[in-house]
């Protein structure tokens, strides 16, 4: 099976909050994607073009677009459990369980980062064997597809990144076509949140994330391998 470690990290870096220092981002992303060839040539080219846009873009505009896209409504949240549990108490337990998985893999989150944040989850997957990582990524397919469809519908080019993860997982792609260019019109977050409330999604197969296992323990995703050392989650393309 092809390695996917750097592909996961590259996509995580692209969907994360735009960093102030972006010099060389496009070349690093292209090298990571072409080195593993886990995605189709067309998808790798689109992701490299997206990275080039981030590298060349104005820092203020990039940050403003990211915040408007991901921080002002539930439908476009990058926190996976937001799409599954909402504000229910189940979300808290699922967070604890996921954080424990990260720690077993040798990953430590920063104090202000929640474990269900998509770039952090992709960083965790990058520490796992490809077969295990792809199985866990497929468990998020419904959430990723819903996120990507909403992003595509509002005209955000960020829809490319959930689409890439779905391709990587070998899951059905988006129902909405990817936008050719970023749409600058304001996002109606109230309308999106009303839609979010009407369309719950599943995470992790039957029973969802946080369902009780046979041993009475809560397991948000299946564990296949434990990591060795301790290292902070970096969200970088390469280590």
Description:
The protein is an all-alpha fold and 239 residues long. It is 49% helix and 2% strand. The chain has 10 helices and 2 strands. The protein has helices at residues 5-15, 25-36, 41-56, 59-70, 89-104, 118-125, 130-139, 141-153, 160-169, 189-198; strands at residues 107-108, 231-232. The chain has a two-stranded parallel sheet with strand order 1-2. The relative contact order is 0.18. Mean pLDDT is 79; it is low at 200-235.
Draw up the topology in text:
Layout: H1 5-15, H2 25-36, H3 41-56, H4 59-70, H5 89-104, E1 107-108, H6 118-125, H7 130-139, H8 141-153, H9 160-169, H10 189-198, E2 231-232
Helix pairs in contact: 1-2, 1-6, 2-3, 7-9, 8-9
Distance between the termini: 21 Å
Strand content: under 5%
Strand arrangement across the biggest beta sheet: 1-2
- Mean pLDDT score, rounded? 79
Helical segment count: 10
Described by strand count, sense and barrel closure, the largest sheet is: 2 strands, parallel
Q: Give the overall shape, derived from the CA principal axes.
A: globular
Give me the strand/helix succession.
Answer: HHHHHEHHHHHE
Which blocks of ≥5 consecutive residues have pLDDT under 50? 200-235
| Helix-residue proportion | 40-55%
The count of β-strands is 2
Secondary-structure class: mainly alpha
User: Which radius of gyration do the C-alpha atoms yield?
Assistant: 17 Å
